[in-house]
Structures are given as C-alpha cells and as structure tokens.
Amino acid sequence: MTLDALLGEAGWLWLILAVGLGIAELMVPGVFLIFLAIAAAITGVATLVLADLSPVAQFASFGIWAAVAVLIGKRWYRDYPVESSDPLLNDRVARLIGEIVVVTDAIENGAGRVRVGDGSWPAHGPDTAVGRRVRVTGVDGSALLTEPADD
C-alpha cells in the first residue's frame, strides 16, 4: 500500500491518530489521551469495515466512543484507585499536620500567625506568645489549627 493510498483511506488515518495519541499518552503525565486513542482506534476499524461511512458519522462515532471510554476509565479509577507511595504529595496542608511551627504574631483571642518554612500562615488556637512553638493539629479554611507543643 502506497502512502497516497494510505492517506486516502480515512480508516487508516484514524488508526494513525490512535497510535499518535497512544504515544503522546506515554510522553505526558496523566491518563486521558489513552481514552481518545481507544476511541480513534474503534472509529478507524469501523471506518475500514464500513467503507462508505461519512465523515460526519466518523466524527460522531469518535465523539461517542471517546465519551464511553472516558466514562469507563473514570469508573475504573474510582473502583480501583492507584496506590501512591506518598498519598499527601499534592496536599501541602495535610502534610503540615503534626509539624512543630513557631508563632510569629501572637495568637490572641484564637487568631494569630505562625512561620511554616519560609512563609507565614494564619493560625487558630489557644492564646500563645510570639516565639513559642506550637503543633499543627488541623486546618480550618486557610488557617492552621494549633495547640501548644510539649517542650
């Protein structure tokens, strides 16, 4: 089969697109392009089998199969979540729970500020003087909940 014949055959173009999307999935983080690759592959096979499938029907097929593949993938990842060696990797606030931090603005009437790394965060907790160490026990909105640290 020559390149001109290959490019003239819509089914093969869909299959080439499927391979391209599969390769792109391997090169970029995330899991989404594989579902589009599956939809393109199904559309390509359908176009090869049903030679008189119009371009509108091909795009409709791709759209429907893409939606079906994404819904199946979403269900799969909900039922079989990917285990992580660091489940708090992208949850900075949750990573702070249990940390000892220093009060930078006195916590008075339940509100103040604490130093976390090189930043300052709002904090809620019992009245605590500047320079005292407190333990982060939770989060309330964007404020850290604290308690006096046992020295």
Task: Sum up the structure in keywords.
47% helix; 151 residues; alpha+beta; five-stranded mixed barrel; 5 helices
Description:
The protein has 151 residues and is α+β, with helices and mostly antiparallel strands. The protein is built from 5 helices and 5 strands; from the N terminus they run H-H-H-H-H-E-E-E-E-E. It has helices at 3-8, 10-27, 33-49, 55-79, 92-96, and strands spanning 100-108, 111-116, 119-124, 133-140, 143-148. A hairpin with a 2-residue loop joins strand 4 and strand 5. It is rod-shaped, with a radius of gyration of 27 Å.
Helix-strand pattern? HHHHHEEEEE
Shape: rod-shaped
Strands of the widest sheet, in order across it, are 1-2-3-5-4
Helix content: 40-55%
What's the Cα radius of gyration?
A: 27 Å
Estimated structural class: alpha+beta
Concise overview:
The protein has 151 residues and is an alpha+beta fold. It has helices spanning 3-8, 10-27, 33-49, 55-79, 92-96; strands spanning 100-108, 111-116, 119-124, 133-140, 143-148. The protein is rod-shaped and about 80 Å long.
